[in-house]
Write a structure and sequence with these properties.
Length: 210
């Protein structure tokens, strides 16, 4: 009885420490992402930003929400239209969304890598001990890799961020969801396939495989 209670307490204590480690890793990724790209908030519209955002009347209501659904990249254009609706041509809002989406991708990678390591790597106990640290390293590399600079700071390259987000979301679903959820979400995630095919060489690969 005493041994059972002690074992239960040890398991609960380990779980609590694991929760704090996970929360710390997430906070660190948020801080690293915001700190790294904060100086890009005032970068002006450049190159293709001007015809696709500044001079693009399709982003302005009431036409935007209907017409943009039939463009080649409706998700990208609708996010730009949302930016325009909220802040007009204030460049800071567009950069903030790019940064937020990129950090979201890093957090998805962290979650997927953590789950993969816990379930398929090093055995159950070792995997549980090392999962947060290794997943954090993978996500931080994705977050900070120089190849990501263009897609984060060049506003219209939001397409690359969204493509990466779709791929990482697909990995997350494959790793965590049951078959019914996979079937239900497949059409949504596949919307990023075209952008992914065009931009796959610009997305830093995760050093993991299932």
């Amino acid at each position: 009885m005493v041994r059972s209670m002690a074992a239960h307490a040890a398991v609960a204590d380990a779980a609590q420490r694991g929760t704090w480690r996970t929360a710390l890793c997430i906070l660190l990724l948020l801080g690293i992402g915001c700190g790294t790209y904060a100086n890009t908030l005032r970068v002006p519209f450049l190159f293709d930003d001007k015809p696709h955002i500044v001079a693009n009347t399709a982003l302005q209501p009431p036409r935007a929400w209907r017409a943009l659904l039939f463009t080649e990249r409706p998700v990208v254009m609708l996010t730009l239209a949302a930016n325009h609706a909220v802040g007009g041509l204030d460049v800071r809002g567009y950069h903030a969304v790019n940064i937020g989406l990129h950090i979201a991708g890093a957090l998805l990678l962290f979650g997927f890598a953590r789950h993969l390591i816990r379930t398929h790597g090093f055995g159950a106990r070792a995997g549980a001990r090392h999962a947060d640290g290794l997943a954090f390293v993978a996500a931080a590399l994705f977050l900070l890799h120089p190849i990501q600079t263009e897609s984060v700071t060049y506003i219209v390259q939001r397409a690359e961020i969204l493509a990466a987000l779709a791929v990482l979301g697909g990995l997350w679903v494959r790793g965590r969801a049951g078959w019914m959820q996979r079937v239900a979400l497949t059409p949504i995630l596949s919307r990023g396939e075209r952008e992914w095919q065009e931009t796959r060489d610009s997305v830093a690969p995760a050093p993991l495989s299932s």
